[in-house]
């Protein structure tokens, strides 16, 4: 830390990541609340020996360097307390505490990093529920019991979605949701041994049904019920959590929204159905510029992939246990918005950089990945940023909204918005999908290997196109992989 660094920090005024204390002869008691708050939020800097006049509106005049009387004594006292029972964990290294001499005035600078998710909450006085603090723009505040419980949940290495839900079993599964998922699973995992097992065994293999060998307990996991459960059991067990999709595009007159999907009894409100219904609505009218790979037109753009990744991330990082938690997906004329309950587990800089990921719901993450959704660990968000940098639509913005315990991702759209395909008569399927349906129409037992040969698509791309046709209601499959056949469910434009 240099003198210029000190002045740069003060130039922006006291904020979420900066706290100034007048300290003269001793370490102020309030330092420890700030230590806990910084560690549990986004980290920050403590400057001891700086006085702040909060009534002064001019930032340049607000701070006064008063210095400390004996910097070495204050540093020693600080370290002694840090290693005592006063705080639950020391997350500092020696380089995090420095004495900076500014024109003969000694300032003690303490850098508190954001604590690792496995160490949170960082609390005081051996009392986790009364000694845990977080930081907002108004300073340090004591966390509620609900917020503390959320941090404790996030510290679990195994995530939050593997808990056994006693008294919830296969009768609480919506078989239509599970069987639609299994059809996609077959598309993406042709020949997989799980395709031959019964529903309960399949769900157990996915982590959606748990058997505890030690005590004999068994039942659906959080992942199993939330992904494939019937609406009533989901609401009974997770009445704190809801899913909501709202389209605010192309509003006319006094319209509040042009489309909405929320709890209304017309669908089983599980995560799989929500994802399956809403994803096509979010991507359907994104621009598809003409692009060829060899002799084939490519309709799946990096922006479509980025939206799928953003939606997937919202689900796998959502805190399903949070009181009044809402997974909210919004479509506006100028942006797409993805909100999920629960703050970021990793520092936001690390997420932009990529390479590390820690989902709250790893079993749900695996369920989605097995049908083609979700990038490799840690590469998802950089992929979203790269896809949007290829356009002139604006930069994605990831926000950690501490005041409401929510993460928000904004993906800007072209100036003037994009047309709503459902209103302007844009074709429901691409030319490539028309070719696939035409081939199936002539031979309903055609194999995926023959389809790849005749279309020139890779196996992975073909699986995605078949999955898209299935989700749009054009196609399904009856019977097994070897003896079954394709069934076209509605006419398609040739």
Gross morphology: elongated
Kindly name the structural category: alpha+beta
- What is the average per-residue confidence, as pLDDT, rounded to a whole number? 88
Spans of at least 5 consecutive residues whose pLDDT stays below 50 are 419-426
- Please work out how many helical segments DSSP would assign: 18
From the coordinates shown, what is the CATH architecture of the largest domain? 2-Layer Sandwich
Count the E strands.
Answer: 21
Radius of gyration: 27 Å
Quickly count the domains: 3
Proportion of residues in extended strands: 15-25%
Top CATH class of the largest domain = Alpha Beta
> Sheet with the most strands?
6 strands, mixed
Helicity, as a percent range: 25-40%
3D architecture notes:
Residues 419-426 have low confidence and may be disordered. A 6-stranded mixed β-sheet has the order 13-12-16-17-19-18, with helices on one face. A 4-stranded mixed β-sheet has the order 1-2-6-5, sandwiched between helices. A 3-stranded antiparallel β-sheet has the order 9-11-10. The chain has 3 domains: 3-153, Methyltransferase, Cobalt-precorrin-4 Transmethylase, Domain 2 (2-Layer Sandwich); 240-424, Heat Shock Protein 90 (2-Layer Sandwich); 431-488, Winged helix-like DNA-binding domain superfamily/Winged helix DNA-binding domain (Arc Repressor Mutant, subunit A, Orthogonal Bundle), CATH 1.10.10. It is built from 18 helices and 21 strands. With 494 residues, it is of the alpha+beta class. It has helices at residues 3-11, 31-40, 59-62, 71-82, 145-154, 175-188, 199-206, 222-228, 231-237, 271-283, 302-316, 348-353, 362-369, 380-389, 421-424, 431-442, 448-455, 459-471; strands at 18-21, 44-48, 50-52, 63-65, 97-102, 105-112, 133-136, 139-142, 164-165, 209-211, 218-221, 241-247, 259-261, 292-293, 296-297, 325-331, 335-341, 397-401, 406-412, 475-478, 485-488. It is elongated, with a radius of gyration of 27 Å.
């Amino acid at each position: 830390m240099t003198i210029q660094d000190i002045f740069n920090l003060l130039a922006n005024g006291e904020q979420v990541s900066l706290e100034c204390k007048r300290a003269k002869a001793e370490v102020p008691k309030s330092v420890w609340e700030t230590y806990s708050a910084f560690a549990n939020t986004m980290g920050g800097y403590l400057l001891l020996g700086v006085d702040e006049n909060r009534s002064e509106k001019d930032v340049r005049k607000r701070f006064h360097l008063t210095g400390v009387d004996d910097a070495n004594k204050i540093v020693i006292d600080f370290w002694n307390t840090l290693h005592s029972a006063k705080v639950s964990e020391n997350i500092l290294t020696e380089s995090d505490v420095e004495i900076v001499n500014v024109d003969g005035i000694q300032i003690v600078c303490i850098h508190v990093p954001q604590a690792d998710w496995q160490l949170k909450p960082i609390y005081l006085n051996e009392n986790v529920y009364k000694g845990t603090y977080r930081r907002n723009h108004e300073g340090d505040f004591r966390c509620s019991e609900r917020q503390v419980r959320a941090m404790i949940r996030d510290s679990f290495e195994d995530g939050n979605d593997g808990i056994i839900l006693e008294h919830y079993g296969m009768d609480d599964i919506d078989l239509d949701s599970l069987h639609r998922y299994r059809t996609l699973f077959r598309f993406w995992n042709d020949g997989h041994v799980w395709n031959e097992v019964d529903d309960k065994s399949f769900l157990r293999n996915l982590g959606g049904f748990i058997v505890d060998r030690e005590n004999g307990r068994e039942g659906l996991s959080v992942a199993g019920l939330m992904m494939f459960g019937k609406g009533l059991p989901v609401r009974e067990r997770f009445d704190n959590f809801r899913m909501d999709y709202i389209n605010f595009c192309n509003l006319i007159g006094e319209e509040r929204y042009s489309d909405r999907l929320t709890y209304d009894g017309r669908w089983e409100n599980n995560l799989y159905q929500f994802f399956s219904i809403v994803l096509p609505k979010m991507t359907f009218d994104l621009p598809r510029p003409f692009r060829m790979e060899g002799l084939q037109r490519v309709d799946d753009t990096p922006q479509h992939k980025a939206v799928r990744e953003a939606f997937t991330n919202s689900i796998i990082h959502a805190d399903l246990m949070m009181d009044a938690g809402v997974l909210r997906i919004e479509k506006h004329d100028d942006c797409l918005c993805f909100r999920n309950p629960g703050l970021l587990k990793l520092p936001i800089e690390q997420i932009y950089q990529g390479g590390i990921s820690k989902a709250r719901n790893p079993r749900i993450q695996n369920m989605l990945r097995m049908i083609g959704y979700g990038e490799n660990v840690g590469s998802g968000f950089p992929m979203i940023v790269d896809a949007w940098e290829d356009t002139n639509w604006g930069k994605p913005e990831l926000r950690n909204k501490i005041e409401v315990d929510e993460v928000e991702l904004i993906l800007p759209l072209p100036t003037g918005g994009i047309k709503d395909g459902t209103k302007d008569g844009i074709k429901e399927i691409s030319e490539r999908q028309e070719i696939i349906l035409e081939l199936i129409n002539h031979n309903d037992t055609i194999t995926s290997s023959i389809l790849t040969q005749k279309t020139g698509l890779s196996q992975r791309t073909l699986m995605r196109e078949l999955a898209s046709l299935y989700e749009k209601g054009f196609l399904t499959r009856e019977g097994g992989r070897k003896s079954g056949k394709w069934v076209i469910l509605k006419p398609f434009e040739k």
